[in-house]
Amino acid sequence: AAGLATATAGARAATAPADGDPNILELPEHSKGLGQAVVTDGYGKPSKYERNVQRRQSPGLTQTAQASVSFAPLQSLFGIVTPSGLHFERHHQGWWDIDPSKHRFMVNGLVKTPKVFTMDELMRLPAVSRFHFIECGANTGMEWGNVAVPTCQYTHGMLSCSEFTGVPLITVLQMVGADLKKGRFLLAEGADGSSMTRTIPMELIESGEVLLAYGQNGEMLRPENGYPLRLVVPGVQGVSWVKYLRRVEVGDQPWATKDETVHYVDLMPDGKHRQYTSIQECKSVVTTPSGGQVLLDKGFYNITGLAWSGRGKVRKVDVSVDGGRNWRQARLQDPVMSKCLTRFSLDWVWDGKPTIIQSRATDETGYVQPTQRQLRGVRGTRSIYHNNAIQSWLVTESGEVKNVHVS
Amino acid sequence: AAGLATATAGARAATAPADGDPNILELPEHSKGLGQAVVTDGYGKPSKYERNVQRRQSPGLTQTAQASVSFAPLQSLFGIVTPSGLHFERHHQGWWDIDPSKHRFMVNGLVKTPKVFTMDELMRLPAVSRFHFIECGANTGMEWGNVAVPTCQYTHGMLSCSEFTGVPLITVLQMVGADLKKGRFLLAEGADGSSMTRTIPMELIESGEVLLAYGQNGEMLRPENGYPLRLVVPGVQGVSWVKYLRRVEVGDQPWATKDETVHYVDLMPDGKHRQYTSIQECKSVVTTPSGGQVLLDKGFYNITGLAWSGRGKVRKVDVSVDGGRNWRQARLQDPVMSKCLTRFSLDWVWDGKPTIIQSRATDETGYVQPTQRQLRGVRGTRSIYHNNAIQSWLVTESGEVKNVHVS
Amino acid sequence: QERFPGIGRAATPAEVKAWDIDVRPDFQGLPKGSGSVAKGQDVWEARCASCHGVFGESNEVFNPLVGGTTEEDIRTGRVANLTRNDYPGRTTLMKVSTVSTLWDYINRAMPWNQPKSLSVDEVYAVTAYMLNLGRIVPDDFVLSDANIDQVQKRMPNRNGMTTAHAMWPGRQPAGAAKPDVLAQACMKDCPVEGKLTSQLPAFARNAHGNLAEQNRLVGAQRGVDTTRAEGG
Amino acid sequence: QERFPGIGRAATPAEVKAWDIDVRPDFQGLPKGSGSVAKGQDVWEARCASCHGVFGESNEVFNPLVGGTTEEDIRTGRVANLTRNDYPGRTTLMKVSTVSTLWDYINRAMPWNQPKSLSVDEVYAVTAYMLNLGRIVPDDFVLSDANIDQVQKRMPNRNGMTTAHAMWPGRQPAGAAKPDVLAQACMKDCPVEGKLTSQLPAFARNAHGNLAEQNRLVGAQRGVDTTRAEGG
Ligand code: HEC
Ligand code: HEC
Ligand SMILES: [Ca+2]
Ligand SMILES: [Ca+2]
Ligand SMILES: [Ca+2]
Ligand SMILES: [Ca+2]
Ligand SMILES: [Ca+2]
Ligand SMILES: [Ca+2]
Ligand SMILES: [Co+2]
Ligand SMILES: [Co+2]
Asked: What is d(CA D179, CA A380) in angstroms, rounded to the nearest whole number?
């Protein structure tokens, strides 16, 4: 446990000298001086000591930096809100900072009157604000085969959660007189180079859940996340949350776009691709402790992590600290919201022995997150997308935590 | 309405030439090129077009910039989460960026064993994450007399709302064997120059609501908001949410600290000061439309704003668009959480005539937000603190919105 | 058996001593020591006067600490000027009801740019000087832990506080159970006078900067251009 | 009477035309036009080959667009290599089931750094060239709006898609009602083999950078120093 000692040096109050901890006995500068003024930053930033908390690329994963992904540092996040500066990125043709006063939104197709809206106009309409997760369909995709990445940032970090504000798309479809009888499908199209297109089921839109969103965590969307307008499609994989949204079209059949035919299709063992797989099924991951970390010491830990389901609310999360033999039900932090991250936690006293930690979520439909073996049993190992298997973290005797597969 | 025309120039799709809007007909650069790479910023920032959304000082309000306040731009925010970069600031002796590995937390007083904790240790304990508003007791203080400031940023901007993560203080009090029978009061003390001290009622701590918080909106607290440790005291004015928290002491009587005797005391008409006024009573404000804005046009608007109560949940919000003669119940955005901002909204069609817009919140205890006249009738005009009166915005014929008092 | 093994440790006496500096109204926490008004004047002029003025009257930027209290106030424990609506400003000595508060605050937070740099005796002395400026103690007074309780009995606003309100959470220290302002939620044809009693004067239109630059550039509205007169 | 007076306006025909560029599997949205394989080769070599390789085989960084399909696949509409676990990589032509998808995507998004710069006929031509590289159309083929439906009948993977799953929200296009993977939440003494089947090989320990620098400096743990061997 030599590595352990190094990692914890200076970190524990327990090792204070007899008289006391110099950090207490000698008053720090900030107790004896005058600090900085207000509005040092009109828009503030994190502490300099938080510089390790960054979104990151996985080396070698993509061939270009504009058709690529950056992962959110889940291992360092709390609660359910993802700070917008750390929101994962997935671009197909790079990101833009678009002038919102020049951005236009069009609705056409099976509608009485095709219409055009400015951002000013959209922002005058009745809006709602809702907390939802967004997960890339390819999240955890590197884990279908063997272990390829070390930390939950890379295994699960194409996942974020925000309070989105926007206009229910159904409001605008009603304004244009959409034919919802024939028009059971909607095409969403972006304004960037890729002009990303995805087919959205009208059922979801009719439920009022799909939003023409401009707000994210209290402010406007970030440029990397589609400023000034993005489709929010709760429960559905991120690629359908079209960024820089310029147009929607109502139609009577799906579009089989490039990202519905060549990508975001799931290869099954029989050689067929599942098309239009969209829902992110129930899933969870322990973020503390998690891969690439080293525990400071034996003793008490608050195991914590995130659970979510594209089908509704998380009903319960079980945690095993013995590699899946026995499970205990974790605490869920309320409010538990539909198609939103749910934070779970569980008391654990680590005795210093190697063990495997896992979490398993169940959603309100009764669907239970499967093991890797169960998932592969049905879908093989070549799907790329929609890997929602139980994640295993091995805690070694030195306290080091590793990403492992078990069977 | 000359000013109106200027303000809306280029803003409306309605004014497009016969053939169509050049912003549509001539494809923008971003539809025809390759955008920027992922991780351009490991920690991202808002669009350059959002530069007007900043926290700001009110000129002349305070005598120094380190014992001062900056206001959150409520007029530009959505939903309930305040982006941490825009969180209001209130410092008494400036802010610091404290090295968390050197920060210590001490508990003493009526306890079996006074104890010391590192941040590492606190962060190992069972934590909760909860959404709460924080409001300075002096928020809206400038409105006790006459109108002094133009926008809701300055009238109500000492208000923010975050998802806070931390350890219930009661957990730690139990660990040290606190005498909760005699010890009905707790002193919280900061580590900055002011070493801010406030007395906290033990009832609140016993309820489990008071947190030793380190997380805010998914990441660590911002330095301006108390990094790395802050007391979260839901429902209670911001000054009690001691930043840079270094110590709590359990005691059998309140402390009458400087900010409980000289400031944050409310002067009543009889010349007595109310001491230990802490709860932020039920309050609301319309943020759109609000002072300093000019409406783009007649027609439909989604009136929206924020409501909150330090005593629990908001039960309902009524909105008047005729200066208080008639009221309609607004929609409340769920989840409605205790001691948390609640977003409300209401449809409104502006006919172009001058009118006064107001909102009035009622909380789950049945307490109704008072008019200025009702509040002043009891408390006079010299309280400085705890002004929760109904806010009035005058919409003039030109569309300009003004902060006004009516009686 | 501990619930949270391995977390936290006992504080040493030296550690508690280093941080447990608070002084309560009953003087719990007050260290032994003393200081004269005369010595306090030296401390004041060297360490405080630059911000608060030679006589605590404040310089152009800071609030006055001293003033507005009378011999009569010291007798009654109520500051008469606080009952007057026309009295301009309220000094620290007009408001502070407990002398412990002054001692504690100066000790922890002053001088503002060098907090915790005064010795215990210097805090006694400069507190004595402030009290002397307010004529609460005589020119030759030596304030100490032994006589501070006597000084408390002369604080001008010592009877000026009330906790009879409903804004302290939980069981009140002598508080009220019901909020003081009880409004009702009338919904229709409510009585309003609708008289506009206050708005920003025209000269202050641009006092907070140009509001056009303080609002988002898209949305249901713009910020009004306050560099120009209304409707201009 | 409108519910939202003043908001939105009718799109002009020219506006709809400028943006309504999508092409569906039934070829709704496909503009009239044509292009030969030969012309497509010119376009390809000038505008595409730098990224995708002269024969669509890709250069060192990009995924191959062409390859892996056979004459037999064109006949059956199923790409046989997709059934093999050992076949390396999957080209675009192996996966794409609808020719409209190729046309639509090239038209909206390619060339990657100059999207929407090709003429309609150039899109026809370069699509024809790609199809020709995959031997779906002959060397002298001229692809047009009139014959593209015939080409669809030769797409190697045209029968390779299924919607028989429960992951399309709402009423399925021929979807399943129940999720395919049905696990159960066993709580006690559950059957596990606990065999560790995969972990990161030692040589990849530092492949994602030093993990000590990717974790917060306080908290329940540190990031492990991966510049050193385990336990080192
Ligand atoms: C560099 C400027 C500066 C110096 C020097 C300074 N002060 Fe202050 N003092 C302040 C400021 C600013 C405040 C208000 C702090 C706040 O807002 O919490 C203050 C507050 C006070 C208060 C509380 C007054 C009130 O009503 O809030 C007292 C008492 C006080 N100072 C006494 C002293 C004494 C005694 C000294 C010298 C030993 C001293 N000050 C030196 C700037 C200064
Ligand atoms: C500057 C590089 C570049 C050039 C030039 C380029 N492409 Fe691409 N192409 C890409 C990249 C990168 C992608 C993947 C985009 C994504 O991830 O969505 C791609 C994707 C494609 C695809 C979809 C393949 C798949 O499986 O996703 C097709 C088809 C294609 N390109 C055809 C063309 C044609 C035809 C041209 C020329 C007219 C062209 N490309 C020019 C870089 C380029
Ligand atoms: Ca790709
Ligand atoms: Ca002040
Ligand atoms: Ca310890
Ligand atoms: Ca004490
Ligand atoms: Ca309009
Ligand atoms: Ca179309
Ligand atoms: Co994706
Ligand atoms: Co305050």
From this structure: 15
Cα–Cα distance between D203 and B22 in angstroms, integer? Answer: 56
B219 in contact with D, Cβ within 8 Å:
no
> CA D38 → CA B53, D126, D142, distances in Å?
55, 9, 9
**What are the structure tokens assigned to B161, written together?**
């709302």
Residue by residue, pLDDT tens for chain C (232 residues) are 688 988 999 999 999 999 999 999 999 999 999 999 999 999 999 999 999 998 887 766 678 999 999 999 999 999 999 999 899 889 999 999 999 999 999 999 999 999 999 999 999 999 999 999 999 999 999 999 999 999 999 999 999 999 999 999 876 667 788 999 999 999 999 998 778 999 999 999 999 999 999 999 999 999 999 999 987 6
D and C: touch, per 3+ CB pairs < 8 A?
A: no
CB nearest C6 (choices: A16, A220, A297): A297
- Rounded to the nearest angstrom, the minimum Cα separation between B341 and chain C is 19
| Cβ contact B118–A11 (<8 Å) | yes
Q: What share of chain C is helix, strand, coil (3-state, %, to 5)?
A: 30, 5, 60
ipTM of the complex: 0.96
Chain A partners within 8 Å of D167 (Cβ): 274, 276-279, 281, 386
Which CATH number does the domain A89-274 belong to among 3.90.420.10, 3.40.50.1220, 3.30.450.20, 3.30.360.10? 3.90.420.10
Orientation of helix C99-109 relative to helix C120-133, angle to 10°: 130
What are the structural domains, with CATH classification, of chain D? Answer: 18-152 (1.10.760.10), 197-232 (no CATH)
Considering only CB atoms, which chain D residues are within 8 Å of A401?
Answer: 221, 224
Q: Domain A283-404 has what CATH class?
A: mainly beta
Which of C222, A126, C232, C192 is CA-nearest to residue B151? C222
Which ligand is closest to the CA of C95, given by its number?
1
Q: Alpha helices, DSSP H only, in A193-351?
A: 202-206, 258-261
Q: Where do the structural domains in chain B lie, given as residue ranges?
A: 89-274, 283-404
